[in-house]
Amino acid sequence: MKFRIFTATSAVALALSACGTVSEETADAEATTVNANSAITAAVAAPDRPADARELDENRKPAETLAFLGLESGMDAADFFPGAGYWSEIMAHVVSEEGSVTALEADEFLDGEQGKAHWADLAKRAPGVGMKLFPFANFTAEPDSYDFLITNLNYHDLYWESEKYRMTRIEPSDVVKQIYAAMRPGGIVGVIDHVGSEGDTRKVVDATHRINPKVVIADFEKEGFELVGQSDILANPDDDHSISVFDPSIRGKTDRFLLKFRKPVE
Questions:
Q1: d(CA 220, CA 200)
Q2: First to last CA, the chain
Q3: Which of the pair, 18 or 213, is modelled with greater confidence?
Q4: pLDDT, position 264
């Protein structure tokens, strides 16, 4: 599939329309944007989504987030470290039968037979979802596989070490290199994570499970990605960045950043 890049936002198109100067190309782009947003809204409203997933919508703002990142029907998308598949299921409804969604999950994160059963149920509701398992310390992907990739509240784990969870020390740059290779030219990567303080990144992650957005930007730009957008729709100015995201006072309400990267079109 060839990735489509749109050059007109709704505001620009409406402004041009008022002046009577909307080109056919601009009108087509505007119509595509509206259709994409409608597909996202419908995906979030799908009646068979589990109740526990719906309860997360107010906090995660899936419609606004995916619209900002530009997910569209027909895309081949990936959900990196998908957890329970919250984003995978929504994205599958958006990309429809013309696209696909691959849950890229570390072996260490899949919860045995219970986890397999959970994903089997999800695949019944969203048939376009598949899963690729890999060792946490050795992520690889086929080149030019995806038009879109999202990772939600998990990028910081690349800086985490845990004997309990069998997570050995890895270099985040090795993972970002693989993600870069896996994206098609023009492909979009969305990164959502808990805002962390400045300082030694591994120490910050170990203590709080947060990461400074400057670190993420530097990691992706170093490997060739372009930062093409940032959004504060998930921000919480009342959050104390020095406390753990698991602290009862802030759990589920952390200050989060949303970054949009693009692989350059060669």
A1: 18
A2: 16
A3: 213
A4: 97
Angle between helices 86-95 and 62-69 (to 10 degrees): 60
CA–CA dist 164, 171 (Å, integer): 19
**Which domains can be identified in the chain, with CATH numbers?**
10-262 (3.40.50.150)
* DSSP per position, the chain: ---------HHHHHHHHHHT---HHHHHHHHHHHHHHHHHHHHHT-TTS-HHHHTTHHHH-HHHHHHHHT--TT-EEEEES-TTTHHHHHHHHHHTTTSEEEEEEEGGGS-HHHHHHHHHHHHHH-TTEEEEEE-TT-----TT-EEEEEEES-GGGGG--BTTTTB----HHHHHHHHHHHEEEEEEEEEEEEB--SS-HHHHHHHHS-B-HHHHHHHHHHTT-EEEEEE-TT--TT--TTS-TTSTTTTT---EEEEEEEPPP-
129 strand-pairing partners: 101
pLDDT at 246 over 60: yes
What pLDDT score was predicted for residue 147?
A: 98
Burial class (CB within 10 angstroms; exposed 0-12, middle 13-18, buried 19+) of 38: exposed
- d(C-alpha 88, C-alpha 103), whole Å: 7
The pLDDT of residue 5 = 37
Rounded to an integer, what distance in angstroms lies between the CA atom of residue 6 and that of residue 26? 9
| pTM for this predicted structure | 0.86
